[in-house]
């Protein structure tokens, strides 16, 4: 395996599958299989999952919701997704430790770095829900924060797109994929890898980001075996494009 300890960020929207909202059972099972596959090979795994398939605080604010309450609703949405993923992993025979950024006993234990590392040392997958526990911060920022806290070697961003492109590939057919790109280039180009806070946090702490399509079954394992299935974002990366 390429890495021994990772933080995996999963997209809530991707979890909805073709239905667009809610939780797609097939997609959930696919995620659980892929995650267990690398856990069985000794990789220590922390997971943060978004809640956009259920409720997104920023979208709620645009419809008249109080932003703080909207973000709190989003935190609860991430917790629902986290519970679903923990069930899928347990059904697959994988031990899971569910932690929450805000106190939610008995849903999960309150997050601490010590508790997360302790659980991973026992071979448990640690799912951290509730974002950062604060409004005005995305789950991307929560992922970057937790990756740095637990000493992950890389933050993997599993999305429905197979990497970082010069433009949105779903809207621009001429968009070109990067194999490698630097944080500075991401920021300068205004690329939608993560929000500015999350990208800056990774840059300041030297946390590599790997963006790949988690919806393709087996991609997580391929990435961990060193296959080029996405885009690596680091401080030292050159602007290396993929020849298509």
Short description:
With 244 residues, the protein is an alpha/beta fold.
Describe this structure in words.
The chain is an alpha/beta fold and about 240 residues long. The chain has 9 helices and 11 strands. Helix 2 packs across helix 4 and helix 6 packs parallel to helix 8. The radius of gyration is 17 Å and the shape is globular. The model has no long low-confidence stretch (mean pLDDT about 95).
Number of strands: 11
The CATH superfamily appears as: Acetylglutamate kinase-like
**Named CATH topology:** Carbamate kinase
* Rg (C-alpha, Å): 17 Å
Instruction: Give the CATH class.
Output: Alpha Beta
Which secondary structure elements does this structure contain, and how are they paired or packed?
Layout lengths: L4 E6 L1 H4 L9 H15 L4 E6 L7 H6 L4 H25 L4 E5 L8 E2 L2 H9 L3 E5 L9 H11 L4 E6 L4 E2 L11 E6 H7 L6 H9 L4 E5 L5 H6 L5 E5 L5 E2 L3
Parallel strand pairs: 1-2, 1-6, 2-5, 3-4, 3-5, 6-9, 8-10
Antiparallel strand pairs: 7-8, 8-11, 9-10
Helix pairs in contact: 2-4, 6-8
Name the features.
244 residues; alpha/beta; Carbamate kinase; 11-stranded mixed β-sheet; 9 helices; 11 strands; 38% helix; globular
């Amino acid at each position: 395996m390429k890495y021994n300890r990772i933080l995996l960020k999963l997209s809530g929207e991707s979890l909805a599958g073709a239905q667009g909202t809610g939780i797609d059972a097939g997609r959930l099972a696919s995620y659980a299989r892929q995650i267990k596959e690398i856990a069985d090979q000794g990789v220590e795994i922390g997971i943060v999952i978004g809640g956009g398939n259920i409720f997104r605080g920023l979208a709620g604010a645009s419809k008249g919701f109080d932003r703080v309450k909207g973000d709190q609703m989003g935190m609860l949405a991430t917790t629902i997704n986290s519970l679903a993923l923990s069930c899928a992993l347990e059904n697959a025979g994988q031990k899971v430790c569910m932690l929450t950024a805000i106190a939610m006993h008995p849903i999960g234990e309150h997050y601490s770095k010590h508790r997360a590392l302790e659980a991973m040392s026992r071979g448990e997958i640690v799912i951290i829900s509730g974002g950062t526990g604060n409004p005005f911060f995305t789950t991307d920022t929560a992922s970057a924060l937790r990756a740095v806290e637990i000493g992950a070697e890389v933050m993997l961003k599993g999305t429905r797109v197979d990497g970082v492109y010069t433009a949105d590939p779903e809207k621009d057919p001429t968009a070109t994929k990067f194999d490698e790109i630097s944080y500075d280039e991401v920021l300068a180009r205004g690329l939608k890898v993560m929000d500015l806070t999350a990208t800056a946090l990774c840059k300041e702490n030297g946390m590599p980001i790997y963006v790949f399509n988690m919806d393709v079954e087996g991609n997580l394992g391929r990435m961990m075996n060193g296959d080029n299935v996405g885009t690596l974002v680091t401080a030292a990366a050159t602007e290396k494009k993929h020849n298509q």
